Amino acid sequence: MVLPVYRPIPVYYPDWYWFVGSDKTQVFSSARMRFVPVADATYGAWLSTGRVPLSADDMAALYGVLFTQGVTSVSASTLLGRLSVAEYTAIRQAAAAQLAQGSGQLEQWLDMARVADRGINLYDPVTTAAKAALVAAGLLTQSRADAVFAPE
């Protein structure tokens, strides 16, 4: 008698689900970059293919895995290329004004973003703070910031 060979389904990080911590009522979707309830129809269809969600201790650990796999990152050239000349100029001017006032939050982010072909972790505290600061300063709308700061 020939027994079937078990072949696990390889993890495809851009479209996988994770339980985070001890909460089993929802899963984090890397495709949607948000939590969905376990009753979600798309999650149910995904489960029906034989795939099984993974577990992460917390969001920091999960974001670390997703960044390592390139899911939550974008290259500096791509991110900066999404900005119009006017948007980039306004951000540079705001960064200079911040420096003059003793705060270098935007300048720190721009320095990080200018490193050629460096992957930018979209969930790094410097990046999330810069995104929030750009919206708060009125330099980008929230929807525009979400588009600029999207994974590749």
Question: If helices are DSSP runs of H or I spanning 4 or more residues, what is the number of helices?
Answer: 7
Low-pLDDT regions: none
Give the % helix.
Answer: 40-55%
- Percent strand equals 5-15%
- Sketch the topology as an H/E string, one letter per element: EEEHEHEHHHEHH
Radius of gyration using CA atoms only: 19 Å
* SSE class: alpha+beta
Mean pLDDT figure? 83
The oligomerization state is single chain
The main β sheet shows up as: 4 strands, mixed
- The total strand number stands at 6
Counting structural domains, the number is 2
Shape: elongated
Q: What descriptive keywords fit this protein?
A:
single chain, 152 residues, alpha+beta, 2 domains, four-stranded mixed sheet, 7 helices, 45% helix, elongated
Topology:
Elements: E1 17-20, E2 26-29, E3 34-37, H1 41-47, E4 54-56, H2 59-68, E5 73-75, H3 76-81, H4 85-100, H5 105-114, E6 119-121, H6 125-136, H7 142-148
Parallel strand pairs: 1-4
Antiparallel strand pairs: 1-2, 2-3, 5-6
Helix pairs in contact: 4-5, 5-6
What features would you describe in this structure?
With 152 residues, the protein is α+β, with helices and mostly antiparallel strands. It folds into two domains: 13-57, no CATH class; 73-148, no CATH class. The protein has helices spanning 41-47, 59-68, 76-81, 85-100, 105-114, 125-136, 142-148; strands spanning 17-20, 26-29, 34-37, 54-56, 73-75, 119-121. A hairpin with a 4-residue loop joins strand 2 (26-29) and strand 3 (34-37). The radius of gyration is 19 Å and the shape is elongated.
